[in-house]
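Morning F.,

Quick status update on the modeling queue. The single chain you submitted on Monday has been processed. Sequence for confirmation:
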Amino acid sequence: MTDGGGHGGGDNHTFAAAGAWTERREERKETNWIAKIRLFDGREIPTTVKDVSTSGARLVVPEEMELPERFMFRVIGRDFVCAVKLMWRRGSAVGVRIERVGKIEAKPAVPVAAPETPAAPAEPSGHTGVHKRGSRVSPN
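Structure tokens below.
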């Protein structure tokens, strides 16, 4: 496991286990996505994705929460899930390498039936629905 350096702005380096700074391959995008970590036993842990690149991400989880070497996370409101490997941890900050990205199938929308409106009562045969009202004043 490596130590998670480079949490901000234009820092494009990471601190490797051997103690040497190495160049990152991709630019990181700052985010504040709400997500859920999904463990293989089915438990879900709330998390926040603080930054992401094509190969990794930095998550924030409760410090006391133990994480396995591999797990998945899903960003709320997005249609993908990432299978990741834990690379480093410092307090509540966790660095992961993205190993696989999968698309979540959208659940088919269940059509909602419109409330039925009662049918208008049938008019007696030969009558129209509108009646003409005559004048009450007699023409003299």
